[in-house]
Design brief:
mainly beta; five-stranded antiparallel sheet; 8% helix; elongated; binds zinc ion
């Protein structure tokens, strides 16, 4: 049985506008995300608190999470 797996990563930044740690960048990737990779990349972050949107660098991430996503996505709300 072949199972199509993909990975996701969620990176949290401090919002440059409201200064809260509410700026999120989420994306999926085909290989398992590694922390040192996440650190070197640039993301389009979106603040859930004030709506700010912009570029954020992985090096300034305050938190990062990653995981496996199966084809039957649990992301649907
Ligand atoms: Zn904000």
């Amino acid at each position: 049985m072949t199972e199509a797996k993909s990975y996701w990563r969620l990176v949290v930044f401090r919002c440059v506008s409201c200064r809260r740690n509410e700026a999120f960048a989420e994306e999926s990737c085909v290989v398992e995300p590694r922390e040192d990779q996440i650190r070197t990349e640039t993301y389009q972050a979106f603040c859930r608190h004030c709506g700010w949107q912009g570029e954020a660098h992985g090096i300034s991430a305050v938190e990062m999470r990653s995981g496996v996503e199966r084809r039957t996505a649990i992301r649907n709300k």
